[in-house]
Amino acid sequence: MYPSIILKSGKERALQNRHCWLFSGAVKQHPSHAEEGSIVAVRTNAFELMGYGFYAAKSQIVCRLFEFTNQEKLFDQKYWYKKVLNALQMRQKLVLSEKTNCYRLLHAEGDFLPGVIADVFADTIVLQLLTKGAERIQAHLLQAFADLGFRHVYLKNKANPERIEGVLVQNGWLSGGFEASQDLLMLEHGLRFKVDYLKGQKTGFFIDQRENRRILGQFSAQKRVLNAFSYTGGFSVYALAGQAREVYSVDVSKDALVLAEQNVALNFGVNAPHKTIDADCFEYLRQMNEDFDVIVLDPPAFAKNAKSVPNAARGYKDLNRIALTKILPQSLLFTFSCSQNIDKQLFRQIIFAAAAEAGRNVRIVEQLIQPADHPINIFHPETEYLKGLLLWVE
Ligand code: SAH
User: Fold this and answer.
1) Fold for the domain defined by 206-393
2) 256 CB less than 6 Å from ligand 1?
3) Alpha-carbon separation of residue 141 from 2, 80, 129, 133, 207 (angstroms)
4) What is the three-class DSSP state of 219?
5) Where do you find CATH 3.40.50.150 in the chain?
6) Where in the chain is CATH 3.30.750.80?
7) Cα dist. 104→19, 196, 200, 258 in Å?
8) Is the pLDDT of residue 163 over 60?
9) Which residue has the higher pLDDT, 25 or 165?
10) Residue nearest (by alpha carbon) to ligand 1 atom 6
11) What's the pLDDT at 151?
């Protein structure tokens, strides 16, 4: 039997509703001894079992639940295998195809697997274990990956190796029958991309924009497209595939721009109408006197936590106001936020304020969202983090 957390009476509601996070204020009694990240049972004041999760004694989120049940359970290899298999089957049915071989396999709470992110690029899994609980099931996850036929697994946690509870957390190829993969090429909607998961940001590629990139492609014919915060050129490649007249990729990361150029060349040769610009996007947009009839704004998360929301909101508003001021009449603006702490409604209000300040008439053409392989857990709304608006600007 696993050690137990006992809830205060009347504090069961969130867990009854299968929200994955147990906050410290709801706890009446901690387990007498449970190590950081170990599996604990969560029980009501009447000692009824509600579920199991990873324990984090000192965190505000004391337990991250991965299983809701009133039956006593054992979390063995079979259990974790089943969990990964379920996630894989969902992706195989909804995402994987001859034309797309990169997808998010495990999306943390979105797959009832708190702390675990796994992105698949062709035959390589890039794994991020973001909590101590997630680290403790590393061996089970690796075994499951091997059983499911994956041959290359790269663990990418933090920039600097760190010792946590005797486990050395670092970036590297994982042992257990896995080998390092060669330079990696993958396919997304039939387009080819290089991924630098060793040095690139997050897992190396922003898979979550796959469907939004496709929508951009559909609206790009004969357009001049500005891809602001381009990273390795994902949106740019789709715009070119959609017959854009010219595409600019703007980013502050030189390494990302080198890859953007390579990705364009891989698909369209070296003479494609594409230019990279190493610049701060705020600055670039302010001073530019180029005419664009499609602009993409896909900045990094400005709000890293709840406290930074007001500043982040100002950042999004400024950025969008400048773009809305500069964009040609009868143009399209794709604007995104991937800040978990800024929800759909707030983002829309921010864009509303930017449009009002820019004095442009703006209509919403589409409301954009993360794709199926980044599942939104209906019980855990925090899993919905990517939101965007496609705007028609007059
Ligand atoms: N749209 C991309 C992902 C963008 S990630 C895709 O589809 O793959 C965010 C990018 O913004 C990163 O590449 C980062 O280097 C860049 N960035 C962050 N701040 C910036 C700034 N002020 N100006 C320009 N680029 C910036």
Assistant:
1) Rossmann fold (3.40.50)
2) yes
3) 20, 7, 10, 12, 21
4) coil
5) 206-393
6) 77-183
7) 21, 16, 16, 24
8) no
9) 25
10) 234
11) 85
119, 226, 229: residue to mutate for ligand 1 pocket, most atoms within 8 A of CB: 229
Over residues 208-241, the pLDDT tens digits come to 999 999 999 999 999 999 999 999 999 999 999 9
In this structure, whether the domain defined by 77-183 belongs to CATH 3.40.50.720 is answered with no
Three-state SS at 198:
coil
Say whether 308 sits in a helix, a strand or coil. helix
* C-alpha 201 – ligand 1 centre gap (Å): 10
Q: What is the pLDDT of residue 174?
A: 72
CA of 230 to the centre of ligand 1 (A): 6
Residue nearest to atom 15 of ligand 1 (CA): 253
CB-based contact 29:8 (threshold 8 Å) = no
What pLDDT does 106 receive?
Answer: 98
Q: Give the Å distances, CA to CA, from 147 to 41, 84, 128, 141, 178.
A: 28, 10, 19, 10, 12
Q: What is the CATH number of domain 4-68?
A: 2.30.130.10
Centre of ligand 1 to C-alpha 127, Å, is 22
Q: Is 211 in the pocket of ligand 1 (CB under 6 A)?
A: no
pTM comes to 0.94
Nearest-angstrom CA–CA distance, 304 and 10: 31
SS3 state of residue 281: helix
Ligand 1, atom 11, lies closest to the CA of 229
